[in-house]
Design goal:
Layout: H1 11-17, H2 24-46, H3 54-121
Helix pairs in contact: 2-3
Length: 125
């Protein structure tokens, strides 16, 4: 049986209780730190010297499994990092386009105001 709310909550209450968005700079720094840590672990496992002893074989097998997981995580994090960089570049390009459009609108307004003033003063263009 699905649960239904007894009363609808106002939009302001929903917004007040929703978590604040995570800062993009923090996300970028977090991804970078995860990448550094995974690279460190990957390097540590790759540099582990293999041994012929039978009791070390189990440890080596665990290291190989860990290495595979780290490589998969590193691949996913790299893709995430690239996607964030692309999103950041697109956002900056959109902001630049918006700023350029606002500047063009302002220049057009100033040009029209200058033309209107000249025509009001009786000067022909």
């Amino acid at each position: 049986m699905p649960m239904t709310p007894s009363a609808e909550r106002p939009l302001e209450e929903i917004r007040a209780r929703s978590p604040a968005p995570i800062d993009d700079t923090w996300k970028d720094e977090f991804v970078e730190s995860l990448l550094r840590e995974l690279r460190r672990q990957l390097q540590q496992l790759q540099n582990a010297a293999p041994t012929a002893e039978s009791d070390q074989a189990g440890i080596r097998a665990l290291n190989v499994a860990t290495l595979a997981r780290i490589e998969r995580s590193l691949d996913r994090l790299t893709k995430m990092h690239e996607a964030r960089a692309l999103k950041r570049d697109l956002t900056m390009a959109a902001k630049n386009d918006d700023a350029r459009a606002a500047l063009e609108r302002r220049l057009d307004e100033l040009l029209e105001a200058g033309r209107a003033r000249r025509s009001a003063e009786g000067h022909d263009e």
